[in-house]
């Protein structure tokens, strides 16, 4: 891989990982509501789900390249519907009092990644355009996936950190912040469904 191709790939990875998407928005929303201590299980779930989706996508692209298009067509609608539901939940959510015993589960974060169509398209595009032309072995592609997961996890943690920083602001302006986050998710859903 040439240096220019590497930097193009790195730019693609950073832009796709750090732009708003379901995982990043949920990480931000979770830490604004629960703080790090109660929200970290969900954040780790998002990161673990990312690892599983990376492996699934790598195996799929490596072994089933010609059959992927119909699966992705169905997944975009399932993911779009889930994103709309998530946007509604965020819009309706309120700041928690110290007395409230809210939950942010590992399972919720982990499960999100399996319907997060953004990362399927991102990972498969990355594999097909940037990695497969240069790496022809499955172990090599899986090893390259470590970098992909690393950048994605750093992005998720960055959004979670932003959530911690705006926690006080969130308590005062939760309706506006939830509205904005919900709009981002609705836009993500629309963008994925329209193709």
UniProtKB/TrEMBL annotation:
Regarding the membrane, this protein is recorded as: Multi-pass membrane protein
**Keyword DNA-binding part of the UniProt annotation:** no
| Record bears the keyword Chaperone | no
Q: Name one GO cellular component term.
A: plasma membrane
The record lists the membrane-crossing segments as none
Q: Which domain of life is it from?
A: Bacteria
Q: Which GO terms describe its biological process?
A: cysteine export across plasma membrane
Keywords assigned by UniProt, alphabetized: Cell membrane, Membrane, Plasmid, Transmembrane, Transmembrane helix
Q: Where in the cell is it found?
A: Cell membrane
Gene Ontology molecular function: amino acid transmembrane transporter activity
InterPro entries in UniProt? LeuE-type (IPR001123)
Q: What is this protein called?
A: Cysteine/O-acetylserine efflux protein
Source organism of this protein record: Clostridium felsineum
């Amino acid at each position: 891989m040439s240096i220019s191709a590497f930097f193009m790939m790195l730019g693609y990875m950073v832009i796709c990982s750090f732009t708003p998407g379901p995982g990043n928005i949920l990480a931000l929303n979770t830490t604004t509501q629960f703080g790090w201590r109660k929200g970290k299980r969900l954040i780790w779930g998002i990161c673990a789900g990312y690892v599983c989706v990376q492996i699934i996508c790598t195996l799929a692209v490596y072994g089933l390249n010609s059959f992927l298009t119909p699966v992705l067509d169905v997944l975009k609608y399932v993911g779009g519907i889930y994103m709309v539901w998530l946007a509604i939940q965020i819009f309706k959510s309120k700041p928690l009092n110290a007395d409230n015993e809210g939950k942010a589960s590992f399972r919720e974060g982990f499960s999100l990644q399996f319907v997060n169509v953004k990362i399927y398209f991102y990972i498969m595009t990355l594999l097909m355009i940037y990695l497969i032309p240069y790496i022809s072995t499955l172990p090599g592609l899986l090893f390259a996936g470590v970098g992909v997961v690393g950048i994605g996890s750093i992005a998720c943690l960055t959004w979670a950190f932003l959530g911690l920083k705006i926690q006080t602001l969130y308590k005062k302006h939760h309706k506006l912040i939830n509205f904005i986050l919900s709009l981002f998710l609705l836009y993500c859903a629309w963008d994925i469904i329209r193709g």
